[in-house]
């Protein structure tokens, strides 16, 4: 009985000691260790933005010749209102280079094709001849061809033709002075003839002169009414100036030939074979 009692006491003592021992890891010396602090989430560093890649040498950049640009040209196709007709093509050549950003984009000698848009013959009594033009196509010396939207903005002539800037037309020379001179010339010739005939037939030279002068003047007036005024004539080499009404858009390669350097350095090919 005593043994059972002793065993129960030892068991109770062991349970009380176990209950007083704190939870957690135990150090080498048997002492309880403090609990490790809870881990906090560390901020994730932001990934730096990668810089944009510079454009490679092969990029196809654009070159714009702006609207309102004027291009001086020389006429290669003579034009005469007597034979010209609406829709006929004309051909010109540029005489001065056009630059953009200190680079020649439209070289001298570029070809321009245009179209006659209006032909007005001179009237019998009044009304001058007129020519209307527009420009449709540009061909660079390297063969690049682009469509144009351009009108006539300037004109130079050694004759009596005039330019009407508001309408973009060329107007022929007036024939009023020529018509008046023809009437006077015909009157003088008629007076001379009347004087001669009157003196021979009736002996009254003055009366014959008056009749002849009147008849000559009437004849000259009839000639003026029956004939037209002066046609407008634009010979080969006439100076013209066109103005763009819409920009011209070129790619880099259309105005500048490709270069081997645009593709980067060439790596020599190595041949592998038996040694």
List the main descriptive attributes of the protein structure presented here.
275 residues, alpha+beta, Lipocalin, six-stranded antiparallel beta barrel, two-stranded antiparallel ribbon, 14 strands, 27% strand, elongated
Note the topology.
Layout: H1 2-20, E1 62-65, E2 70-75, E3 79-80, E4 89-94, E5 98-100, E6 103-106, E7 111-120, E8 130-139, E9 145-156, E10 162-164, E11 169-171, H2 176-201, H3 205-226, E12 233-234, E13 239-244, E14 248-251, H4 252-255
Antiparallel strand pairs: 1-14, 2-4, 2-13, 3-12, 4-7, 5-6, 7-8, 8-9, 8-11, 9-13, 10-11
Helix pairs in contact: 2-3
Provide the CATH architecture of the domain at 62-174 and 230-256.
Beta Barrel
| The CATH homology group name of the domain at 62-174 and 230-256 | Type IV secretion system, VirB10/TraB/TrbI
Global shape: elongated
Structural class: alpha+beta
Number of strands: 14
Q: What multimeric state do the chains show? A: single chain
In the predicted model, the low-confidence regions spanning at least 5 consecutive residues are: 51-59
User: So what's the CATH class of the domain at 62-174 and 230-256?
Assistant: Mainly Beta
């Amino acid at each position: 009985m005593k043994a059972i009692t002793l065993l129960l006491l030892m068991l109770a003592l062991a349970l009380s000691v176990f209950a007083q021992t704190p939870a957690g890891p135990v150090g080498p010396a048997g002492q309880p260790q403090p609990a490790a602090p809870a881990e906090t989430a560390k901020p994730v560093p932001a990934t730096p933005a990668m810089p944009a890649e510079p454009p490679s040498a092969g990029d196809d950049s654009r070159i714009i010749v702006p609207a309102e640009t004027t291009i001086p040209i020389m006429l290669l196709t003579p034009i005469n209102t007597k034979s010209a007709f609406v829709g006929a093509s004309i051909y010109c050549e540029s005489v001065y280079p056009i630059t953009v950003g200190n680079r020649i984009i439209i070289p001298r000698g570029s070809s321009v094709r245009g179209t006659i848009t209006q032909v007005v013959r001179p009237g019998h009594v009044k009304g001058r001849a007129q020519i209307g033009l527009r420009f449709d196509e540009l061909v660079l010396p390297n063969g690049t061809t682009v469509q144009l939207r351009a009108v006539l903005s300037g004109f130079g002539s050694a004759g009596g033709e005039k330019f009407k800037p508001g309408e973009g037309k060329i107007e022929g020379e007036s024939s009023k002075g020529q018509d008046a001179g023809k009437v006077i010339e015909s009157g003088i010739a008629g007076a001379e003839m009347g004087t001669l005939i009157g003196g021979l037939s009736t002996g009254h030279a003055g009366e014959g002169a008056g009749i002849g002068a009147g008849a000559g003047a009437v004849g000259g007036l009839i000639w003026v009414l029956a004939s037209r005024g002066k046609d407008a004539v634009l010979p080969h080499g006439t100076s013209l100036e066109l103005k763009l009404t819409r920009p011209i858009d070129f790619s880099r390669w259309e105005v500048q030939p490709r270069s081997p350097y645009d593709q980067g350095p060439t790596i020599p090919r190595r041949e592998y074979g038996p040694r």
